[in-house]
Amino acid sequence: MHPRPDQRHIRANDVFEIADIVGACELNIEGNPFAAARGDYPGLLQLVQRAGAAQVTLVPDSDSQITSDHGFDADTNFGRLKTIVQGFKACGARISVFVDPGCEVISQLVDCAIDRIEIYTGPYAKAFSSGAFGPELDACVLTANSARKHGLGVNAGHDLSQANLEALLQAIPYLDEVSIGHALFSEALYAGLGLTVRRYLDIIKRCSIEAASA
Predict the structure, then answer these.
(1) Structure pTM?
(2) Residues identified as active-site
(3) Residue 131 to residue 140: CA distance in whole angstroms
């Protein structure tokens, strides 16, 4: 879930209600760690604490962004980020941070004591639809390899779909997690939610078997 301070879609109360429904399932809450509490938005740390999130994904997005479209970069206040990460760690959450493909600040993020990165796959997905996606996929692989060398886990997400997921998993077989939302529900309008989820799981399983036998 990605509740934003302006609460333009999912809201704080929705987070708590969903947390009660999913029970033992892993809960991942995304948000801007630098965004202050306002109105009915209690702040990201308070949301994670109250909902008991297993993972928090930190994303440097602003209210003016329609969706997340970039990761942490050299302009990040890493000192402040490190302090914020300590707060999330104190409530037992695993920390993932959103980064661009080709990210050059992995070492600075490692110093902030994060656990994983999440690679922004928007550029890859856009290039995939045009049929020429090699450079964008290579950038994702480069970032994943860099993170892994630093001992970090690797997630990926944004605009992933049944069409482009397999190529990504084949290129980065050690991905810990992929975040898929918009495409899944768009596809489910035609095939149904259960079948759509099973198709995604089949892609992941097939790629895992291929990687194990390689």
Answers:
(1) 0.93
(2) 2, 30, 158
(3) 17
